[in-house]
Amino acid sequence: ANPAQNHPVGATWIKNAVKRGMKLVLADPRRTELARHSWKHLGFKAGTDVALLNALLHTIVFEGLTDPAYIEAHTLDFALLKAHLVDFSPEAMAPVCGIDAATLREVARAYATAKNSMILWGMGISQHTHGTDNARCLIALSLITGQIGRPGTGLHPLRGQNNVQGASDAGLIPMVLPDYQKVSDVHAREKAEHLWNLPPGTLGSEAGLTVVEIIDAAHRREIRAMLIQGENPAMSDPDATHAREALAGLDHLVVQDIFLTETASLADVVLPATAWPEKTGSVTNTDRCVQLGRKAVRAPGEARADAWITEQLARRLGLDWTYGVAADGTATEDAHGGIGAVFEEMRAMMPSIAGLSWARLQREGAVTYPVSSESDPGHPVVFTDGFPTISGRATLVGANVTPPAEVPDATFPMVLITGRQLEHWHTGSMTRRSGVLDALEPGPVVSLHTTTAQRLGLQAGAVAQVRSRRGTVALPVRLDDAMPLDTAFIPFAYAEAAANLLTNPALDPVGKIAELKYCAVDVRPAVFTQESAPV
User: Fold this and answer.
1) Is the pLDDT of residue 402 over 60?
2) Phi and psi of 162, rounded to 5°?
3) What pLDDT was estimated at residue 535?
4) Which of 31, 121, 337, 496 could be disulfide-bonded to 482 (CB atoms 3.0-4.6 Å)?
5) What is the sign, positive or negative, of the torsion defined by CA atoms of 185, 188, 192, 193?
6) Which of 115, 126, 135 shows the shortest CA–CA distance to 53?
């Protein structure tokens, strides 16, 4: 994770904690800004996360730094994990991950023996073909040391977008219903069918498709029409040429957004939505705090509230939806209509917010779930007494070291890492329309270590050609000695040199998340003909 760039408010809290004497360990192939504040920077070789994490786990287990009482009371399969970790000593993993064994042992000891230890992680963990294994290792670290279920402990995902937590909670994941109830659970489906007045058996038990799978299905013409709300896959999806071909080949594409994005430019119909200050609704942040946002300004032109658009589409498709959401994004003060009615329906389906009524949210403004009753103040710490599994325990799962789906070779000898930057958020659909922000970072760059650039015959400001098996972009060089050698970094906010034209759509087999953080590329000075020279 790179909080200083992607979560600057959160980064301030981290820096303040360091000032109070906390030890910060930054694990990142790049030496990002927080490295200046860190006790240790683990600049591991990109793609070797599991090797590094297994070395930490090995040290904790075989140096007797675990919490046996917690393991006995709250976990399963510790013996299997211990047997798995035998071959992953720091000495064995140091050549793989590039961090010396002594440092790995020192960090493991510090994490295990501290009164409280926290893990903050971002999409540098999940956006790999071994992303699920990365997460399994982090979970195991917290479980075997008992660094979970208490204040100042646990695993804390730094979410990639505002309200990702709330959207996930509400069921916008293709294999679950609201509150993470699996679609394969017959009782969960029956509950949803009853609440939504559907005939028994209406809801299917098969998981839906994830983002990249949807694009692949559209490319195969198995999906013929699509409604995209507030997302820009023509820029954000890996192998963007493939994604754009799939979107352009649809029989009918509807995009609902506040600006004419690269995806909206491919649409047959664009529905003008409302921005955050133009509507009333709730959002849930990464620590599960449900917050009320109130409409503050009028929406421009023909823009309409997102929920109103969705309800009107449903009614025109023959569904008897009667929420009565206001077109202008206002909300009634009760739960009998509009956004309040939608929230109350969510509450009826979601045990996590069962005690948080629309009236209470209007009154208090923010409540942290789980909240079981109107008198429950909410719980900032979860898993204090166990886990939401049949046994009440968490299963420890070992992870093997596997290479990325695509590794450097003679043709593509370097590694590409993509991400965001402070000035431009995600695909830049909003921030690049800000004159101030665009003046700070007006165009794309590829960051290279000075030594790497010199080897390639490139200087600062020179135009480089970056090529992968999927595409090519040309963009100026930025020298950055915080970069690892033979590694390039490109932010993906720039349509004129879209980083995702290069990235690999290979998926994690479990989480189905694409390997956006690693692919093999060739970098060299760009050669322009008279016809191709930039104007």
Assistant:
1) yes
2) -65, 140
3) 43
4) 31
5) positive
6) 135
- Going by pLDDT thresholds of 50, 70 and 90, the confidence category of residue 497 is very high
Helix (H) or strand (E) holding 519: strand 519-525
Q: Tens digit of pLDDT for each residue in 228-276?
A: 999 999 999 999 999 999 999 999 999 999 999 999 999 999 999 999 9
Percent of residues in the chain assigned helix, strand, coil, to nearest 5: 35, 15, 50
Strand stretches in 78-138, DSSP E: 118-121
Q: What are the start-end ranges of the H helices in 419-499?
A: 435-440, 450-456
Q: What is the mean pLDDT of residues 107-115?
A: 98
Do 182 and 176 contact (CB within 8 A), yes or no?
yes
Phi, psi of 291 (to 5 degrees): -125, 145
- Name the burial class of residue 270, with classes exposed (0-12), middle (13-18) and buried (19+) by CB atoms within 10 angstroms of its CB: middle
Cα gap 319→316, rounded to integer Å: 7
Residue 139 contacts residue 132 (beta carbons within 8 Å): no
CA–CA distance from 527 to each of 390, 451, 524, 533 (Å)? 61, 21, 9, 9
The torsion region of residue 386 among left (phi > 0), alpha (psi -120 to 50) and beta comes to: left
Strands annotated E in 278-436:
281-284, 289-293, 366-368, 394-395, 414-419
